[in-house]
Amino acid sequence: GSSVLILGPSGTGKELLARALHRASPRAERPFVAVNCGALPDNLLESELFGYKKGAFTDARADKPGRFALAEGGTLFLDEIGDTSPAMQVKLLRVLQEKVYEPLGGTRPVPCDVRVIAATNRDLSARVADGRFRADLYYRINVLSFDLPPLSERREDIPLLIERFIETLNAEKGRDVQGIAENALERLMRYDYPGNIRELRNIIEHAYVLCRC
Questions:
Q1: Strands 4-7 and 144-147
Q2: For the CA atoms of 156, 36, 95, 7, what is the dihedral angle to 10 degrees?
Q3: What is the C-alpha radius of gyration for the chain, rounded to an integer number of angstroms?
Q4: Which residues does 4 contact at the CB level (< 8 Å), separation at least 6?
Q5: Which residue from 92, 119, 142, 171 has the least number of CB within 10 angstroms?
């Protein structure tokens, strides 16, 4: 499938959308693998994405597959791609263009069949304009794009999200909570959610844990 770019503030459900796109694709039976590009320095991110061969560095006592290998045939979700360095952007561009990567310490390219879905809370077009993000990588990942507005601008999604969160919690905890009281839903519909979907999920999980039903 084509590469996808998901834009939106933190907590707006970019990974939820990425998982939904994966489930709706021909790759649905293959792995969905996520990595937060903004959480790791370059050297760790490179080994996390591409893996390494035994002996690549002092503590490399065995081969370790990277996230591209783990996502083979499936989808790799690259969260916060806007925070990657120029050097890492070059490596990602090569994978997307040539469908190969090299593990650290490897001597030959490894072919890969992975659909990349990238996400960022940055203004990537502005980063391209000021030289902080490669234009060729931007166009490569931006074949299809989705712009997720803050939850306060799509309040009609709140009841559906609450229903989904309760279903997930029931499955995780083996309970059968049926839903949310109408007066509680009315209050939640009026709230502005500075933390977006992530904040709503925390509110529902807190209430679920305290619920005696």
A1: parallel
A2: 30
A3: 20
A4: 18, 21, 115, 116, 117, 118, 141, 143, 144, 145, 146
A5: 171
Specify the pTM. 0.84
**DSSP state letter for 194:** T
DSSP assignment letter at 122: S
List phi, psi (to 5°) of 120. Answer: -160, 150
Quote the CA–CA distance of 122 and 10 in Å, as a whole number.
Answer: 10
Which residue in 111, 134, 120, 43 sits closest to 77, CA to CA?
A: 120
DSSP letter string, 26-75: TTTTS-EEEEEGGGS-HHHHHHHHH-B-TTSSTT--S-B--HHHHTTTSE
Residue ranges in the chain modelled with pLDDT below 70: 55-56, 58, 60, 213
Question: Sheet of 4-7: strands edge to edge?
Answer: 32-36, 75-79, 115-120, 4-7, 144-147
Are 101 and 50 a contacting pair, CB within 8 Å? yes
pLDDT for 140: 96
Instruction: Give the residue carrying structure tokens 């490596």.
Output: 91
